[in-house]
Amino acid sequence: MATAPAYFRRTDTAGTEASAVRPESTRPERDRFLLRSLPHEDVYFYCKKIDNSRLVREPDPRGRGACWSAIGVACLALVSLTGVLAPSVATTLAGYKLEALRAEEHRMVDERRALELQEAQLLSPERLDRLAQTQNLVTPSPNQVVHLDNQAKGAVAMVKK
Amino acid sequence: MTPVTLRDMVERRLTWLAGIVLLWGALIFYNLVSLQVFHHSEFVRKARARQEQVIEIPAPRGVVLDRTGQPLAMSVPTDSVSVNPLSVPNIKVDSELLARELHLDPAELCARMQQAFDNRRGFLWVKRNISAQEAEDLRNLHLDWIRFESGSQRHYPKGTLAAHVLGGVDFEEKGSWGVERSLEADLRGEPGQVRLLTDVKRRGIEEQLTSEARPGTTITLTIDERLQFVAEREIAAAVAQHHAVSGSVVVMDPHDGQILALASFPTYDPNQPPVTAADQENRANHAVGVPFEPGSVFKVITLSAALETTKLRPDSPINCHGGVLTLFQRTIHDSHLGYGILPMALVLAHSSNIGAIEIGLQVGRENMYNYVRRFGFNQRTGIPLPGEAKGRLRNWTKWSGTSLASVSMGQEVSVTTLQLAQAGSVVANGGLLVKPRLILKEGDEVPPSRPPVRVIQPETAIAMRKMMEGVVLVGTGRGARLQGYTVGGKTGSAQIYDYDSKHYTHTYNGSFMGFAPLTNPAVVVVVTLNGTHGTAGFGGAAAAPVFKAVATEALRLLDVPKDLPDEPPPTLVAKNESVDDLAIAELGSTQPNILEDKDDDDQPAAPPKETPVKAPSVSQAQLAPTVPNFTGMTLRAVLVEAAAQGIVVQPDGSGVARVQSPPPGAILHQGERIRVQFTR
Fold first, then answer.
1. CA pair distance B107, B509, nearest whole angstrom
2. Which residues pair with B265 in a beta bridge?
3. Do β-strands B674-679 and B649-653 pair in parallel, antiparallel, or remain unpaired?
4. Residue from the list A117, A139, A142 with its beta carbon closest to the beta carbon of B74
5. How far is CA B40 from CA A21, B36, B80, B496, in A?
6. What was the pLDDT predicted at B573?
7. Which among A96, A114, A139 is the nearest to B132, CB-wise?
8. What is the torsional sign of CA B207, B212, B213, B219?
9. From the centroid of its chain, how far is CA A134?
10. In this predicted model, what pLDDT tens digit does every residue of B532-569 receive, in sequence order?
11. Predicted confidence (pLDDT) per residue in A56-79, tens digit
């Protein structure tokens, strides 16, 4: 691999070898006080005007097709990737939701049990009897209850006063 | 030496680079193989340990319902709180915080936590089965050193109702008494397990069922909570009123053996664990587990055996010897002033001990023993309640000379209230022994019941019913008469034997066994009061009113049609015979109170000894109403006439009355209906 020191060393060596081969006579004596010429001092730049207006881009149907093919493949790949990953993502999200709903269900079941217990306590015969006594309600005596036969409206018994 | 060209140098370095990359890839591949193949199971396990939670699916203990679907016992999920004392930041401050939220004594909790900390214990229960509000308050503190353990707590929402039937559970929710214990296998559920895949925040993503939870089976009892409440209320009131020690009531359907109510007093609250010895004693089920000498109610068995094995019939004369009988050189006194010759029906009605002995002697030892056994005594009924007593009856081959006489009037034999109900059902249902049933349904399945066994002939049962009706109408059980229904029953008052002094005391087991209505009994009710005192503690005075209250409620709840007018016809009311409180007189008597004379019935309607009464069956028949002649009357006219006379008519057809049964002029027995056929 080329490194910066090696490069400069090589260029220095190449300059030394060229000066040794070249005859001194071919080169006029230089004025010692004359400034050294700058590299590429003899190169002159100028602007050349080129008219490309006559150039017309030639249509390339194959290139366009290739481009669209690439775009299509990319889209297809994206869709495929989405199709592959989407169920997994959806499953995960659904799993979160499902577990949250299950936890809610358990909580609701527990709450329902607690409410059933409360209802059973409230419907205790002892409590109802106590409440009935406070409101002066009494169980009808046998001769007060009259059973109504063949009543269509759901009445099965009435209490005589 | 060949100078190293740039290409060579680049190639060499690229070679090294490729080698290193290859080696790197090889290492990665090796690591992958190692992870995915060689240590696959290990890392899967580690991953599961981090990502999966094994969660137990609770299987609540089965609910116990009464026959109408009202819950009598149920389990509710609860939380229990524990801490690791070693990780509690500040025991003094945190214990105060916990105590305030859980309503505990701060000093006591602090001392417990400090003691656990000093002993380097990493676990301490703070409070078990906390309320939902306490759990919510505590969770809102968001303290990571507080742990919650999910559990379940058994509740009995009706308090003491049916406590002896339900029993109770221990702190692990394992049945310790009653059906909770006997049906433990059905009631106890099996928890399941799921593996829950969680994210880093321990939120559930997906769960996999490992084992299904099997909740406990719902048990539906034959008990009716309304009737049970009435039975418990009445027996508690009776025990308090008569200063008795204990009492029990059994209400049974005589046709299929379903126990509609089973009450025992003293009672207890199954929600509270037993603490004292008295609490343990209160858990004794007197209806099932405490046998006693039945006394005169056992005469029903004696007379049934007599009807089956001898030529005795309800109107057969029985010599009551004026209330004194010498048997095997022992003199047996009747509790009353004494009767002369009575028809067998009145022996039962007036509960004559001498008469029962006379009848028993005709039955004989072996027959008596066999019939006692056939009525279900001296053997367990098989009801699913732990600690059922089978009672006691010696084999007839080991009986002494007076044993037959004793057994004939309900002594030298011990029975339970439930066995009496079973025996009463035999008479009530026409002679079949039906085993008591307490479980109506297990889940949705109806448990199979044992087929009934014929004990006595239907004719015998009907005859016994009529004789037992006499007990309520004219005998010792008048306190059991019901409004609107015919009743059959038998009282019993047996002295309690003192094992220390080897003598019978003057405390009594007062009992009443009865059924209603007479023609097709819907319920059999047996009431027993143990440890009553004086005549007010006899069966007719103490137990019969309880029977009346319970049977009235039972017939109302079961919607049993009445078979009597609400106000009983005056002609059917027995004459108010003089009540000779002979038991009191006997207490003051200097005569030895021998074993055979310890059975006294209450309010014996006995005439003076000097004038032994003849069988009043004729006079009773004369007093009874006769069947009117409905022939030729319209339906409306028949109904008006029947209503005016307080007679129940069963009309059939339309038009004019042509045929009636019983025929005109026949004696109309109480509760009997007149069938009238109408044609045009």
1. 52
2. B247
3. parallel
4. A117
5. 74, 5, 39, 80
6. 40
7. A114
8. positive
9. 67
10. 988 888 899 999 999 999 999 999 889 888 888 776 55
11. 888 888 988 999 999 999 999 999
Least confident of A83-92, B360-369, B637-646, B667-676: B667-676
Nearest C-alpha in A relative to B485:
A142
| Mutation target vs B (from A88, A110, A149, A159; most B CBs, 10 A cutoff) | A110
B559 vs A143: CB contact, 8 Å cut-off?
A: no
- Report the C-alpha gap between B556 and B227 in whole angstroms: 10
Side chain identity, residue B352:
S
Cβ <8 Å between A139 and B207: no
Note the pLDDT of residue A4.
53
Tens-digit pLDDT profile for residues A28-64: 676 778 777 788 777 888 888 888 888 888 888 898 8
Distances (CA, A) of B452 to B257, B274, B429, B430, B448: 9, 39, 10, 11, 12
**What does the alpha-carbon distance between residue B446 and residue B188 come to, in Å, rounded to a whole number?**
19
Given a contact cutoff of 8 angstroms between Cβ atoms, the answer to whether B391 and B419 are in contact is: yes
In this complex, do B204 and A141 lie within 8 Å of one another by their Cβ atoms? no
B592 pLDDT band (50/70/90 cuts)?
very low
Q: Write the CA distances from B625 to A51, B483, B636, B650, integer angstroms.
A: 145, 18, 21, 17
How many Å lie between the alpha carbon of B57 and the closest alpha carbon of chain A? 10
Alpha helices in B310-447 (DSSP H): 344-349, 353-363, 365-374, 403-408, 417-428
- From the list B206, B229, B484, the residue facing A125 with the nearest CB is B229
Q: How far is CA B181 from CA A17, B165, B175, B185, B387, in A?
A: 115, 10, 4, 9, 11
CA torsion sign, B369 to B373 to B379 to B385? negative
Q: Is B155 within 8 Å of A117 when comparing Cβ atoms?
A: yes
Give whole-number Cα distances, B555 to B222, B478, B516, B526, B654, in Å: 16, 18, 8, 15, 31
Cβ contacts (< 8 Å) between A120 and chain B: which residues?
70-71, 74, 157-158
Residues of chain A in Cβ contact (below 8 Å) with chain B: 1-2, 91-92, 95-96, 98-100, 102-103, 110, 113-114, 116-117, 120-121, 123-126, 129, 139, 141-143, 145, 147
Q: Where are the beta strands (DSSP E) in B222-323?
A: 246-252, 259-265, 317-319
User: Is A117 in Cβ contact with B225 (below 8 Å)?
Assistant: no
Please report the pLDDT score of residue B588 as a whole number.
33
Smallest Cβ distance to B76: which of A96, A114, A142? A114
- For residues B602 and B576, the answer to whether their CB atoms sit within 8 Å is no
Q: How confident is the model at residue A11 (pLDDT cuts 50, 70, 90)?
A: low
